[in-house]
Here is the input.
Amino acid sequence: MLYKNERVITLGKKWGLILVFVSMVTLIACSNNNKAVSGEWSPKESIEVVAPAGAGSGWDTTARMAAKIFEEEGMIEQDIGVVNKPGGGGAVGWAYVAEKAGNPHHMFIASPPIIDVPLNGQSQYDHNDFTPIANVIADYGAFAVRADSKWENLNDLFEDMKKDPSSVTIIGASSPGSMDHIQFVKIAKEAGVDIKKIKYVSEQDGGTLTALLNGSADVYSTGVAETIEQAKAGKIKVLGVTSEERLEGEVISEFPTVQEQGIDSYFVNWRGFFAPPDTDENAIDFYVSKFKELNESEAWKEIRKQYGWDEMFMYGEEYKDFLDEQKEESEQLLDELGILKNE
Here is the structure.
């Protein structure tokens, strides 16, 4: 039998235990909430962005402009360094980043070659071996000739190529079966040229424009941005660009599209960023949020305008689905060219 004072003491102990339990639950909940907040990953060291090509390339320019805005606008506090890893149409850079598996302080910029180059057997890595972050822009192809060329438009060029495709030398910075080659082939096919007989020369050491100007090549297949200065100087003329509509901006607004010349085709040179394999989802979420901020910034809009890039922002499942669709399309074209690697 408990006396009154003993009951009070016992009840007091029970309430004390209940209060301790409630306090523990509250602390755990707060701890979990703090963990969720502190679990929002951010870089702890400088970030390395690989451009798998030489200085001045489309990859290099896009990566450096993005890094510039990230730092100048204070979007990312850590230093961002862009390093060039040219070779193999991108394969050297991809192999380098593949070795950084799980390291969230590395990334690289890519475009259609990450699809095409593995398909033609020049790289063991493709987009599925990395972690997509976000696509940021759409660039377009341009087909240029010397200013004194007899061809005034794409139809003139393709009429000659229909008669003898190999009589015209096409030069590009991409390897055979990669972007500069494929963008030209895709348009030429729609125009009725026998694409298996097209003579394409790959010049990956920066001599493409020189080869065009000295007469070693007839047509330069490249990106729009790479033609602006020479077109402005009157050294080359651009026969066509692969955008669906005319681009806005000084000089480039004068470049006719493929479609307005009666050729029902286009080619998008998308560019986006990828992390190494096995990169933590929290790190990917961080980078996606920063690329969203970049995409919406006025500074980045000015960069896009300067280089004639269109907005093409994607991430997550949308980006992954897009990449898979691009692979299917490239497989069909490379198979037709006879350069699809047999698995």
User: Anything to note?
Assistant: The longest helix spans residues 4-38. The chain is about 45% helix and 20% strand. Confidence is low (pLDDT under 50) at residues 1-38. The domain at 140-268 is CATH 3.40.190.10 (D-Maltodextrin-Binding Protein; domain 2).
